[in-house]
Amino acid sequence: MTAGTERGVRRGPVAWSAPGFPRLAAGWVATNLGDSALFLMVAVWVKELTGSDVAAGFVFVALGLPAILAPFIGMLADRMPRRRLLVLNNVALVPVVLSLLLVSGTAQLWLVYAVVFLYSAAGYVTASAQSGIIRAMLRDDQLASGNGVLSTIDNGLRLVSPLIGTALYVWLGAPAVIVLTAACFAVAAVIVAGLPVGGAAPERDPGRGSLRELVAGFEQLFAPQSLRVITIAAAIGFGATGLLNIIVFPALDAMHVDPVAIGVLVPVQGAGAVLGGLLSATVVTRWGEGRSAALGLLLIAVGSVPFAFGSVVLGGAGMFVMGIGIPITVVAFSTLRQRLTPDALQGRTGAAANVVVNLPQTLVSIAGAGLLLVVDYRVLIWLAVGAVLAGAATALRARRTVAVAAAPGE
């Protein structure tokens, strides 16, 4: 793993020395172990239940729709003690995920989408609360390192979680994956309950309850020039990847492999993401957030190209390259956002960032699902590549910013 300075590279991640960060990382491991296994399994499950690429693609749509709730979720994270919110969120996910055990056929397909929607909404709660906790826990010079570590964990588990999920699904069926995921969230709740920060509610805005309070996170995202430019670049680049979500199963068909093969290809992306996560703190510190985000988006675009050629080998190579680019882009965006945002706005700004990135991706996925009925999937791939490259070009316009917001604290 890398740290945010050359000295940190030699000694390991500088964030690791922050009180409570190892516990936060352990909770992140538990959460993501189940997370990566579940949503891919659900997409494959729906594909096999219905035989429909579109029905399976709408699993990813359901994952993205909670973006419309993110401003309210962010405001909740800026009002409640964030540690308590994380615990309650993980506890609530246990019965939600276990309700998937009631699905026995296409008649319960609505329940699958409903659970995926709630499961995704809970992810926004985690992201909003955790953003404030990270900012309170880490100094400015530790932020890139901490985000790099968490991104490495997140993406590194893609190496094992989909394989575990796929193996359990093939061997024991969907119920085994469902129970594993619920257990992971229960463990995460226990771990985060002991975090040393986040026990008090953030200082509230004077305009409590007003529309201005609700949209304050969006205002913060678009206030500093550097943050505004990278936000737009991320919205364009990650929004375009909504087309890639839709073409996954047609691309696998063109490769003449079973849909379950996604459980093998995604760990390849995870291997690239581990490398990207290891490099991200150093890249962001040396290059600045703008150029780092541009590099990450460029790698995502390059990695998308091989899916147009119907080769599983090229597809795997593309997934690896995309994997490198994703954490570099995310760490650059997250670090700049956390660094320039006051503590009282961390939840709302984090939620707003998720809206700006995920809502366009969801809308593009919906449009792509319709286009997939009338155009060849390769057309969607080339459209995605062009848009992601446009996002990379946009990120290069961000000015390097060294000023920081108010010091973190609870």
Tell me the count of domains: 1
Query: What is the string of helix and strand elements?
Result: HHHHHHHHHHHHHHHHHHH
How many separate helices? 19
CATH fold assignment: Growth Hormone, Chain: A
- Number of beta strands: 0
> Can you tell me the CATH architecture?
Up-down Bundle
Cα shape: globular
**Uncertain residue segments:** 1-10, 403-410
- For the report, how would you describe the main beta sheet? none
CATH-level-4 superfamily name: MFS general substrate transporter like domains
User: Class in CATH?
Assistant: Mainly Alpha
Share of residues in strands: under 5%
Q: Rg to the nearest angstrom?
A: 20 Å
Gap between N and C termini: 28 Å
Helix/sheet category: mainly alpha
Main location: membrane
Protein name: Enterobactin exporter EntS
GO molecular function, one term: transmembrane transporter activity
Transmembrane segments: 21-42, 54-73, 85-104, 110-134, 178-201, 229-248, 260-281, 293-314, 352-373, 379-396
List keywords for this structure.
410 residues; 19 helices; mainly alpha; globular; Growth Hormone, Chain: A; disordered N terminus
